[in-house]
Specification:
The protein has about 180 residues and is mainly alpha-helical. The protein has one domain. Helices cover about 55% and strands about 10% of the residues. The chain contains 8 helices and 3 strands; from the N terminus they run αβββααααααα. Strand 2 and strand 3 form a beta hairpin. It binds zinc ion.
Length: about 180
């Protein structure tokens, strides 16, 4: 794992990247540099750059991002993270079939409300808990119909990475563990 030094404001961006990586891709996206720029074209919200074996990066248009609310910003970030997903699978980028498939899987369908049971629906749900008292947040999480699905998926993939065992084994393991 790469160590990236960031100031405290950028740390907020990295936290969002990590949360979305965990919920939407089970933590499998590679580390990525996140930057804000005032020098992008006024028509570009952000772009993702393929590090070609080095560091991937996402650069946001700082001026345009000021106009966004949290949900808008996270959607821009998710869009760019799909490009990072493409790069990490050796794909070229762009907005072709693979990109659109990922968009649909995450629940990001243009002009439609993001479904609550989609990965991005869960990202927004978790994001909205940020300012709550921890006990209050815990209660809400326990009551959320899909939280177990996403948390189980994540821990299964971690288990798989650590042990190199197939998903069948991990499923059995997580059943035995009986999470709360
Ligand atoms: Zn794009």
């Amino acid at each position: 794992m790469q160590i990236i030094e960031v100031d405290s404001l950028l740390a907020v961006l990295y936290e969002s990247y990590n949360i979305m990586n965990r919920i939407c891709w089970q933590g499998t996206l590679p580390p990525c540099l996140l930057r804000m720029s005032h020098r992008l074209s006024p028509r570009v919200w952000a772009y993702a750059k393929n590090g070609l074996g080095g560091e991937h990066r996402i650069v946001f248009n700082a001026t345009l991002c000021l106009q966004l609310n949290d949900a808008g910003f996270l959607q821009i970030m998710a869009h760019e993270m799909i490009h990072i997903w493409q790069f990490s699978h050796g794909r070229r980028g762009g907005h072709g079939h693979d990109f659109q498939g990922e968009q649909r899987r995450l629940g990001l369908i243009l002009g439609r409300v993001i479904p609550q049971d989609s990965p991005m629906g869960y990202v927004f749900f978790m994001h909205n808990l940020k300012n709550l008292h921890p006990a209050e947040a815990a209660l809400k999480i326990a009551a959320y119909p899909n939280h177990r699905k996403y948390e189980t998926e994540y821990y299964q993939s971690l288990y798989k990475q650590i042990t190199n065992k197939g998903p069948r084994h991990a499923t059995k393991e997580s059943r035995e563990r009986k999470p709360l």
